[in-house]
Amino acid sequence: MSKKPIILGIESSCDETAASIITENEQGIPIVLSNIISSQDEIHKKFGGVVPELAARSHIEKIDWIVKKAINDSGIKINEINAVASTAGPGLVVCLSVGLSFGKSFAAAMNIPFISVNHLEGHALSPKLNSKLDYPYLLLLISGGHSQYLSVRGLGSYRRLGTTIDDALGEAFDKTAKLLGIKFPGGPQIEILAEKGDPKKFKLPKPIFNKGGCNLSFAGLKTAILKISKNIKNQQDRYDIAASFQKTIEDILEKKTQVAFNEFESVNRLKNKIFVVAGGVAANKRIRSMLIKICNENNYKHIFPPINLCGDNAAMIAMVGLEKFKIKKFNNLDYPAKPRWPLDENALFLKGAGVIL
Ligand code: KG4
Ligand code: ZN
Q1: pLDDT for res 355
Q2: Measured between alpha carbons, how far is 202 from 243 in angstroms, rounded to an integer?
Q3: Pocket flag, ligand 1, residue 187 (CB < 6 Å)
Q4: Ligand closest to the CA atom of residue 286
């Protein structure tokens, strides 16, 4: 039996301090041996968003015991780890620096390779943690900082088909929640409130619905909700706003995903049509079921990460580390934090929206 690589993953790009140990079985299926996540929601709640300085301090306080716990819980010995993979970007530079420095020091002390990981690539590969996933696939990445359709052709090979031209989808959920008086991060609460509301009560805008290819825009929604929220009289109004917002997002994603299907098919020769959804907002069950419906209608196989691996975690960072380890793609210990690090570095000019992001 050949010895399989054991990878330590570290994530600290925003407000989650996380560490994970993964390996794979004889068939090459990844096995998550431990996955420790410490959220800072309680710290940032009262400020209505993530405060970088406080986030970084908390990472510094916790990183040591989070990594220790990941190693202890995994059942392996520290000297069995073959490589360490840390998120190097995108994210808050003061936060990235904590996990990155810890990972580099760990690699140096243990004399093992260091691997830098793009956080977005972590989300992109997160479905591999529980599903067999063949390239190419169409990826919808919907998180607190990003909303993109990407054609994924292999490890490190991404072509951006569309992106948001203003707010990210998770940000739109969080801002709507804030206007309804829900503390940060309110995205998951919107989904719950929406269950009790009338989705037809408020007509909300659908920016660039019929233009801009599969680019997305959510800023106009926030402005519309700001106006409506000034007249909130009772709890039912809140339910109705949440339901109308949730339904509008579903309509936008339904339409834009159809456009993305066409663009994906025009840039790839496909044997199988595969659609992957990842990032924190992929935990939204109504968005999931709408996307499953259109996948079925368009003969796409749909793949979602498990709900607990949609948000930020280190197992997805270790997953990228594992793939890079297998092709010996290691990095030097002077690798910098990259607060802005697009997945598709050669394709920054977007057709349709006419903007450079
Ligand atoms: O991927 P993630 O954990 O962090 C980033 O990389 O940004 O995504 C966090 C975002 C937050 O904006 C959060 O409100 C949103 O995902 N989110 C949700 C749900 N669960 C998390 N949005 C809508 N419905 C949910 N169930
Ligand atoms: Zn993320």
Answers
A1: 36
A2: 9
A3: yes
A4: 1
